[in-house]
């Protein structure tokens, strides 16, 4: 062994480890945990970790160990022998070892463990002498199975079948019912299988066994399932895996032996209570195999109080050290406790909250750490009823997880039916090919919405998220026959009134009624958000269209309204009739007459919102959609309207045809309407300003921010700004009230982002409309993307659905360009985002690029507040680190 | 006068001028021309020019002359007096002067001239002594009219009406029938009008007259019509106007006096023949007023041969000096010739060509100059029949000038009718609400196409331009009733068979038949393009979908095909049936079966094109439109197809509904189809490569460039490239032929342009699809823009229609980013453009940003070739200038 060789092997044992808990990169998660426990003087069977560097070098060097590695293995094996007082391959007192992989990130099921290495016909005897024949042969056959299948690639079924045959022959049901003789024979059979499959005998040389096991661990890094797992989880392929070689301890050496697993606190509720299970005289794999049912840890307390006390001391020590709830594994061998593994434990959203808050109160962690501990996505789950995790479900289809939560109800196909059934107390799920504004009432009445068409930002999805209601959209396999009131999904045919369950978090459509656990927004929920608010620097606003929405927004912590969509107001009740009158008017005068009817209604809307938001800014977007959206689509509906309005059907039809657009998304809408029909926007500005002046007189502080949509060129904004200022000044003069108002624009068209430096002088603020910006940047209609976007995401062609998470590379580049070029002209210019992407990643990105606030539907604000706080903390940590490294 | 004052006044006279012909900035066009002629020893009445600087200073200084200017005027006025041997305001030998504006660029009608300044009751007598009482009073009343209306803003009608009244009183028809006494009285009346309107008497002081006239000239620079004219013609407002003060000469002083205008060559044909008219004993304004009909210049030759010879010498001298055809004005005063103006003459497209080429042969100019002289837009007019300029037309509507040229024919409303009527020898104009691929046959058969809907790149527009056929699109006032076969346009109702005329260059729809002059592509046309080709550095390709198109492309000078749209092939004849079979197939196998029917047809298409383009590259775009475009829209048509294909109507209807898209432009098309239905693109690549291998065997050189449409992310291109290479290699292996092929992509989505540096490694070439890139960058559907885009352009909200001329600021920024970032990775990477914008401005831009080639419809190639040559020359001139300035 060359003295100058790199250190590839890290020993742990006897209360001292070469490595430490921080060396996850080099030793993997498991190796770092073992080193850490050892250093904490916690009893851990001695062993050593071969580094991830060695693994990478192995692959770079055509599957040869790097120079010196094997020699270091041998040296450290000796140390293990010394520590355990046993010798590897020794005929009298043989050391057995386990070999396990362990990479930086947990990759469950990447590779099976190989236990009991070092056993051969010679050492078998010594083991039998110590622990009995039955134990020895049972251990041996397990080794051959694991080694043969894992290290040599023999089909595991061959061993399993031989075992089954033996049990049949003996007429027994359980492995444990086999006799020592049976097991001895089985070992012979297994050796035969091994030889037949590999062409060689089972290696008697323990060092040979060890080498092959190490090779198998290394090779498992590039196994198909490991590569796939890493792709799916965005883990780099060049991390490599470490290999942990550790002395075996046995929990199956009698009644004072046993094995256990546990959590330091309750992973379901977060209660501060040791939550563990124990199995006497058993090995870990028996628990996993479900052969025996583990007992409550109190059984250990009763049977071996000293061991239990030691375990208690240890888990408390570990919690204090890791400052988190832990998942632990341990073995008791003949009355002696060994810790085998520790790691941060998985938990439910509720437990996550409780543990974090408890630990702050216990002064284990500070508030910042608590805030960093909560997964914002998990937080969202808390806001919706969830499935009983014990329920068995039958999934019959899948769509897009358009709005999270769960919904159970009877299938109805028409919005009217949803309202009628709900009115008589039935729970219903509204199933539609797609929804339209006329369905709003039915959507409100339903528990959840399922649509066959439309993407994450289709009408159904947007409205459902706004309502905080579960929605599965774009379930393309779904066919609906409204006539016969029947839906077909896969091979299932459901009729009106049949029960169905939706999982809006996964997009699954489930047959029948799945029991639900109601949402519980505890004090913990609000406390953690309070802490988050103390930390975050990014503002959080809500998209809200009504006073009710606005109240919800305040409830969930909005600091203003980032988007009032005035068109939603146009659809309500009798208003749509006045809107249609306006559309059908032949000239400006006719339009103005119809608009005069809408004006007082719009004014009332704004008065209501201003009153709720007293003192907080309200960004109001002027009319955005093309006019034809306010006309119905079928001939029958058109005929109805013609009758209601008293206009000839032909005229209505002609106007409808004239308004038709091939690509409404790219059509005559937003400021293009405002420029060609200025009277519409003028009415809206008048309504906003009259409302503001009205409430100001009543001591309510109104802060309107008037927002012009769909700007592609500064000239459009210039014209619209002039109009807005003119009307606003007129109203103030008339009412003799001054109101602080601003005029800004959406940045939702690529060209506006590119030329933002030209637009900035005309805008008091920007709001990035990332839905439309994503649509135009990608040339992708969100309503039509359902046919290929899911496939794209599944195949990794797109990293994310850009309508869920902002595309940082493309759309984000435009946002950065717009922000930087505009702030060069207007330092500190106010800029927000009002698209639908308020997932944690997008929120962090918005903070990184310097936005003033994010705005989303009220129900998504908690996530945004938490994510914004985490983004601030992450930046501080980075700064701290870069300072530290200076 | 301060000695150090700036020089504001430039004298010309006595064969020497202070200024020169190059000083257009300072002296304006007219002033520079007068200085130039003076320096050339050409007889010009003496005068001086007050500079544009003085004008600008006048405005900067609250309408005060800059210090020293007026003094310089007085000094130079003295020089004029000396030169002409007369004195301004002198009672015996009075000098009269004219005052005219003259800016750098000709601004016709910006301001009227004031003639005869210097006349008052005193000088009047001297004039009467010299030229008779009648002449003197006539001159005086003209002065009062011009001065009063132009300098003092009196309504000219007041003078005109007084004149009319006098003629009525006297019972005469013509001004010239009035007696001296009548005119004397009229002068009195006019002075009365002047005093009543201005509150002051007509200024008797000649210097006061001069000062007010100069002020009027300066002020005219910011008159409403001048400002509007400059806006419309992109002329800067800070250029200012010069003011020319010049001694009057009189062509109405007897039979040996006269006035004339002319062109040094024929402005209609370009023939090298003096083309002028002369009027004896008359002033220029008499010619303009149309009171007397001018005679052929030969009359002058007969009457005053010496003067004629001098004129001949002068115009030849001028042509040699200016090296261009000139427009001249002259006056003969008592047998003495004076030149009053010279400038480059306006001419027809044909004349422009002939003159440029003749002058090269005369060695007056070189080929480069000739190429620079031709306006590419004018060149295009030569390619289409044009209106007889003498015809009177009745315009009844206006649409977009979608495809240039003129068309006369009978109105038909259905494509079938167009074909049937044309087959029996009728000329028809196809009038449709919009066209679709099914109308192609009818469009071919028609003289021109008129649509009510769609923009510059609507189906009708694109196809018509491709055919070189006249089209007026988006005539929104047009209503068609296909049922009764009647169209309404404005107040006109036309029925099938009525005659209509379209002007595709102006967008006008004209009632009845306007006589046309056929297109004449003379040798001159091809010669100038040959010269352009020798100069230009930018490649020129054609968009062509068939062998016939390809032949047309070669005829018009294409160096390759920049875009074969394979979808057009899918529409033809029986193919669409196979395509529909494919669309209706339930699975990949079914689709493959249908595709197998299309394969041999596609292969034949490509064989045909490769054979025509032998040795030239052919860029073939794989299927671009969404599949639903291949299904018809009406229930009746769907029923027909169901019958033809033998599928249940319900199934067809369901599939049609499923394929429906809200925004097809942003839908499931291009590479998104290729990725989700790989078999379609595979078939196309196979057809291309089999065709290429086939022709190579027959010694035809095929250079296929396979182009993937609608890339938004490099991963899409990676998948498509792998597929293409796999199929291409397969075909080559099978056929044992090697073909040089390339795989590239369209850059037509904003995101692809933004992330081009990621895409470049996967692409052998780019083609900018500026139609779609414009649509996505602006968020603007070209098919729907007709409702507001014309308004936007008219109001100056958008500088241009970005579908006609590339938006250099926004779309151009994306193009520059893509080009620069990609060429950093792939130096000299081949990049072209295949959008519809091949107007001269866009061609120059493409050259400036470094594209390899432009590609447009064959009929637009001559324009592109010429514009490309001019772009090269402009750059060289700029370089030359910047070198010279070093």
Give me the secondary-structure topology.
The structure is a homodimer of 886-residue chains.
Chain A: E1 9-13, E2 16-17, H1 24-39, E3 47-50, H2 52-60, H3 69-84, E4 87-88, E5 94-95, E6 97-103, E7 114-117, H4 121-131, H5 133-151, H6 156-170, H7 180-198, H8 206-220, H9 224-232, E8 241-247, E9 258-263, E10 275-280, H10 284-289, E11 295-296, H11 298-303, H12 305-322, E12 326-333, E13 336-344, H13 349-361, H14 367-373, H15 376-382, E14 386-387, E15 395-398, E16 400-403, E17 406-412, H16 415-423, E18 428-432, H17 440-445, E19 448-451, H18 459-467, E20 470-473, E21 478-481, E22 486-489, E23 492-495, E24 499-503, E25 508-511, E26 516-517, H19 523-535, E27 539-543, H20 547-555, E28 561-565, H21 566-571, H22 575-584, H23 588-612, E29 617-621, H24 635-645, H25 649-659, H26 671-676, H27 678-697, E30 703-708, H28 714-735, E31 742-747, H29 750-754, H30 756-759, E32 765-768, H31 770-778, H32 789-794, H33 811-825, E33 830-833, H34 840-848, E34 853-856, H35 861-884
Parallel strand pairs in A: 4-5, 17-18, 18-19, 19-20, 27-28, 27-34, 28-29, 29-30, 30-31, 31-32, 32-33, 33-34
Antiparallel strand pairs in A: 1-2, 1-3, 3-8, 6-7, 6-8, 9-10, 9-12, 10-11, 12-13, 14-26, 15-25, 16-20, 17-24, 21-22, 22-23, 24-25
Helix pairs in contact in A: 4-5, 5-7, 6-7, 13-14, 14-19, 15-35, 19-35, 20-23, 22-23, 23-27, 27-28, 34-35
TL;DR?
Chain A is of the alpha/beta class and 886 residues long. Chain A is built from 35 helices and 34 strands.
